[in-house]
Structure formats: structure tokens, C-alpha cells
Amino acid sequence: MTVATASSSAAPAFKANPKGTTAVSYEPATLEQALLVEPPLTFEPVQEDIHPKYLYGAETPNPDNTKGDLSPIAQAYIAQWNKTLEAINADASQANLDQLDALIVDHAQLKDHMAITWDFHQFTGLADIKKAIAAQAAKFKIRNFKIDTTSDHRYKDSISVQTLHAAKADAAAVEWVQVVADFENEYGWGKALFRLVSVKDPKAPGGLKAYTVYTGLDNIKGNEEKLGRTRELGASHGENLERKIWADRRKQDFIWGGDKQPVVLIVGGGQGGLNTAARLKVMGIPSLIIEKNDRIGDNWRNRYATLTLHDPVWYDHLSYIPFPDTWPIFTPKDKLGDWFESYANQMELAFWTKKTVTGADYNDATKTWTVTIKDNVTGEVTTLNPKHVVMSTGHSGEPNWPTFKDQEKFKGKLHHSSVHGTGLSYKGENALVVGACNSAHDIAQDFYEQGAKPTILQRSTTCVIASDVGLRITTAGLYEEGGPKTATADLIFQSIPIHLLNFVMQQQFRETCKQEKKLHDSLKAVGFKMDAGYGGTGLFGKYFRRGGGYYIDVGASGLIADRKIGWKQGVEIDRFTENGVVFTDGSTLDNLAVVVLATGYSNMRDTARRIFGDKVADRLNPVWGLDQDGDLATMWRDSGHPGFWYMGGNLALSRFYSKLLALRIIAHERGFIN
């Protein structure tokens, strides 16, 4: 069998590509679109495998190099990597920087989470990577990379070959050697992950060059996580005339004010707030959660009755305490709420429930907040002075509650999905659900199952995958039964820079469409409009860019295909009548008992404005969506306002990024960041 080199087809122009276009492409997605941070919205997946040129560029693949023991070649690479960094840290001269030519392919990406800067960055191309490594030499001095020998069983030696596409007669395999490593810098320790391609370059150590490199800070010296062998003793043995039992000490966790002030005040006790509080506690930073609901977990309990997580259990663990092996794959909302409440107590977190933040003012001179908090029951107002405020009220922001002409004339019920409960009381009646994503489908399915006659108003297009097929393909190899430990899975997934992530998501959605052809064809047959996400990246591509626009099918798609749930496509509501609506195409839907607006949510900054006021909100940056590098904008990072941090995202993102947010706050507290 002959294997073509990557240069047998014209290599693409590898460069940092800023935000692309919000255009729509009616052609199938292309591989080239993976090189854009914001590719166009497409309606068909990519049609071909990833070409080896996207990994190897102008290099010649050497597949025989990785057929034997991987350890010697990986160790040779890491040894030269360390030697090169040592030289650059001592003298970031061009001659020393040029040693990286033998270690990194020209089009590589370096993704960093606070190991060489105090922010998130993705550097594209050898020239920009050289600049980044040169810049860190004066302050961070990243060094001493060692292959991690403690990784779990799925990555026993922390060295493995990962293959996306096997070799063909006319193309090399699309694969790399994955190497997990530890390292240190001036401030602490971190985790690294290399994706190394095997090339025929005599100067490449071990015959390997990096296609992607990830560096992420994992612990700060002096604030290391108290885990495992460094965990607290939990008892005070010997004579102690002032001994306090645990229950009394625990009561003190809920008493704040006066001389006892939290370093961090966390507004919101959902997954973001709980994960952040847990991370800070384990790293020795006092925090207090303010939760407006009666109990921790009510933010889930109070949502619509049939809500069950669409993500599987392996993806949804909280920090430090995973779900037990008996936990169901998909978690009902009330069960999750109870778990949150238990988690807050088991992690000994400090929280106040039934309380609302009513105002906040920041003193730029003292770098402290004055936050007023009202008791929802007694009306009593308490003032606290934290140094940091973490807004953890959910990344979605305020409910997007549109108004319509003549809606006051409507005699039925009109409300947003955020306050919807159940369709139980609408048996035999007509219901309209405005929107066509997860919440809309779930609510419409509940209406149908309760005996109502629902119609979905699909105004644009929806990316649809099935829970039992598409979701399995998307999480395969990482978040599944028998998969790697959660920390390992998170490291592998979060280490993927934007270009490779787009490529992987394109192929995942392509395979999903193949295996779900029957489902997609049945929806197309009745006129339900679907898309393939941005550049064919499917569900995750839409989630990262806009936070929605998709449905993970758990039954509603079949009901739509069987015409048991009605739908109206491509129009808006023009106006209401006493008993129904008139659409913009002139058609009507009459005898409506209820209209549910599953119309999504606004930017999180709108919620910040409501809670903290204009003075604070006017200094904040917009949040969510991808920045120029391909990282999520503002979330878990510099918000634009000193001492103010956004925390949001699904359970997996909250778990991973809560640690980085805690480390960033500690860096400020330790004076590492001006």
C-alpha cells in the first residue's frame, strides 16, 4: 500500500483566523471552515474525512515510527522540549527560539489556560507560538515537563496513539501521539497535553513534532488543593480544653459580618456557584454563596416538571464528589436538586438561602465591595464587604420574553418557559410553544402526553441529534461507562484548540447524520427544518457560539414526524386575537388555551444590570460566544470590572472552569496580578 505525503495536496493557509462570518452557506460544510473561529451556518455536514495535510502541513508523515514502543520517542521529545525551554527562559534570543522549529509544525496551535499568561489564549502558527513562549520567559518560566505516570488505566502510560482516520491507499492516517505531562512555572504546577505527529524530519526529536500543545495551571504554590495525602486530619487528638465538636464548627460557617468577611461572595447556588465555592474551599479561600431560593437545588426543582438532563451522568459530575455508580444515566431535575443540596453540606460550603442581593458598590481604592443582601422572609438587610463577587446565576441571562401586538386581548395563558410547570391542566386543549430547541420540544412532548394538542412554532432551523446515537458519538471515548477518569477526560477535551475541535466536531456530526438518517429523513419529510451547526460542527459548535439552537431528541422528534405534535415553520407571530394568534403569513391558530415562549435568554450582562445596577454593568463586557482566539468570551475570565467574575455553563464546563476561576482569584489575592 502506498501512503501519500501530506504535501501531495496543496496545503491550506495556516494562520490565526479571527472571527469569520455569520453568513449562511447552503452548500455542505467544508473542511476549510474548520479553520475559522466563526464559520457560516450550514445545513449539511462535511462529506469527507479530514485530509492529512491539516495535521502534517508541509511535513512528510512517518507512520512506521509509532508502531513500536512509544515511550522512548516521547521521552526524547520531552527531553528536547525541556532543553529548549530552559534555553529560552534564560535568554529569549531568536537563536534559542528557532530551536522550536524542530519541535513544532508550522501551523500548530498552543492553547494556554493561565500557565504562560494569566488569561486564556490560543496561539496559531509557529511564529505566534514563538512570541508567546518568549513573552512568558520573563515572568512565568514554564519548565520541567515530566510525562505523567499517575494517569488512570485508559491512559496507563500517558502516551497513546489517537487515530481519527486510518491510512488509505492515497493518504496517511490522521492520527497523533498523545502525551500527558506535568510541569511547573514560577507560580505553581500544571498539566500539559501534547498531540505529536510523526514526521520524516531528522531534526525532530524522536521523529515527532507538535500539532497542538496545551498548558494549564493546576495548582498555585501555597494554595494547593487539600486532597488525598494532604487532606485535613478531621480530628484533634490529645488534650484540648477548648475543643469544639464538628457540629459547632459547622454552625460558624453560616455566620458572616463584622470582622468576618468572605473573600469571595458567590451570587447563585447552582452548579457554577457550588463548584466555585468547593474549589475555593479546598484551596483555602473563604467564600459565601447567596441563594434567593428556599433551598440549594431549587434552581432545578423549580423548572418545568418533565425536565431531565440531556447530558449523560459521566459528563455531569461535580468537583470532588462524583455521582455514585447507581446513578441513572440521565438525571431528573428534582433528583439533581437534592444532590446539589447534599453536595453543599457534604463539601461544608457556606451558603445563605432565602436571601437576595439588592445592591453592590465597588471601591476602586480599597478594592472591596459593599454588597447589601435582603432576607426574603424577614426583610432584614445585611451588608458584606468581599473582595470578589462571582455572579453565578446561569450563563443564559434574563428570560427573552418578547411582546406582541394585541397580546393583552388574549384570554388564554401566556408565559415564558422559565416559569412553565406542566401541561397537566390543559388536557384536550390547544397549546402553542414558540421555539424549537430543547425546552420547546420537552414542553411540547409533555403537553402531548398530558392529552393536550401542542403546536411548535419553528421560526428558523434547529440542529437535531438523538440522545441514544448522536450524544453517544459526541461523548465517546471520554464521557462513557469504562471511560477515563473525569479529570483525564476534561483535560483531553479542554486541551483541544479551536481548529482541531472544529475538525473533530465536523466528523462527529457527519457520523451522527449517517447513523441517524432515518430520524433526520422523517423530520425533513414533514417540513421540519434542520441545520448542521456552524461549519458542520453540529450541537457543540452551536452551544459554544450561541448557547442554544439545538435539540437532543428524547421522543419529541418522533411525535413531530408522526404529526402528533403540530408545527408551523418559518414565520413569526404577527398579533394575538382573543383566542389565538395570527402569523406573519396571514394564517391563524385559534382556540388556544396557552402559549409558552421557549424563546431563550438574553446575555448574562442583563442579569448583572438587574442585580448590581448600571454603575457595575456599564463596565462589564458581553459574555458567551467565542472570542478572536476561539475561547469563550469573558466567562470565567476578566469581566471588564475589577473584582467581578462571571461563572456559568453546563455541569461539565462549571466543573472544569471553576478551578481556573479559583486560581485566577487566588492570583489576585497573592499579588501575582496587578
Automatic annotation (TrEMBL):
<feature type="compositionally biased region" description="Low complexity">
    <location>
        <begin position="1"/>
        <end position="16"/>
    </location>
</feature>
<dbReference type="InterPro" id="IPR050982">
    <property type="entry name" value="Auxin_biosynth/cation_transpt"/>
</dbReference>
<dbReference type="GO" id="GO:0004497">
    <property type="term" value="F:monooxygenase activity"/>
</dbReference>
<dbReference type="GO" id="GO:0050660">
    <property type="term" value="F:flavin adenine dinucleotide binding"/>
</dbReference>
<dbReference type="InterPro" id="IPR036188">
    <property type="entry name" value="FAD/NAD-bd_sf"/>
</dbReference>
<keyword id="KW-0503">Monooxygenase</keyword>
<keyword id="KW-0560">Oxidoreductase</keyword>
<protein>
    <submittedName>
        <fullName>Indole-3-pyruvate monooxygenase YUCCA1</fullName>
    </submittedName>
</protein>
<dbReference type="Pfam" id="PF13738">
    <property type="entry name" value="Pyr_redox_3"/>
</dbReference>
<feature type="region of interest" description="Disordered">
    <location>
        <begin position="1"/>
        <end position="21"/>
    </location>
</feature>
